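Re: the 354-residue chain
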Amino acid sequence: MEALELSVKQMEERIQEIKKKLGSRLYILGHHYQKDEVIQFADDIGDSLKLAQLAAENKEAEFIVFCGVHFMAETADILTNANQKVILPDLEAGCSMADMATLEQAEKAWQYLTHIYGDTIIPLTYVNSTAAIKAFVGRHGGATVTSSNAKKILSWAFTKKQRVLFLPDQHLGRNTAYTLGIQLDEMAVWDPIKEELELDGDVNNIKIILWKGHCGVHQNFTVEDIKHLRRTEPDMKIIVHPECTFEVAQMADENGSTNKIIQTIEQSESGSKWAIGTELNLVNRLKHNNPDKKIISLNPYTCINCYTMNKIDLIDLLNSLENIVKGRVVNQIIVDEKTKEDALLALNNMFMIK
């Protein structure tokens, strides 16, 4: 019987049946932003890098079903063994931010910037980027970063070169650089569409060049959202993800990675009140898991979900598992060996930085 013909209960029972049948040969990973209908079947839940690392540590699993988006599955394929197969239940589950930086654009930017600055630049890329961009960064001696370790990795980069090219999220780069004492007039923005450098000050004073990319979810939180909350809920604390704009991050009480947001809420006092500036599935899960606290989205009037992350549903997951049972591997994510080798340079640089 096709998945579409089954009820939700029947699909859930079938997924459990397949999980039991495949046992340790199957490993299902779920990103924090996934729907509850999918996340309930995840063997592990986490952010993109943590899940890729967990996949790499699991040597038994033959099939790794990654309920996330394309770049996450690529990273898992880079870090796992050749005999392990990484599967993305829906190939349309991409990331608009990752798509804002292509290899061709990065190479053009590098040519332009090194013409101005010579050998004074090192590239860094957020893990929310394609394997091709990670490989580009690896070839040029750089490293990947996460929202949790961005400050540490950026500090390391400045021990290597005078300037940093930070891809593909300008907001994480700006917010992190500012915490290190880099002023806004020491930051420039590279526009990959216009192929030009945007800056207010002297080009020679620039310390960090931010790629003109962003997360469509986090950029939707605004200063007006915060002002409204300060008027209507003055005793509510605000915590946002560093993919939010500089102005929003500065006005919030706290900003930090997904893991920091989760830990902050879980460790806060009973009865505390929080407005959270991040993806709605996670906000709702935190609300459900912390009933003793008042938790809302920073913008409760707009459904701020990650559209592509929400592509994967119960039917997609079940279809992936049914294909495995039938001996078919559908939607396998395969990174070519050269790209994998270069991307590993960037990932390993990050892992080695203490």
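The chain has three domains: 3-94+309-336, 98-215, 218-297.
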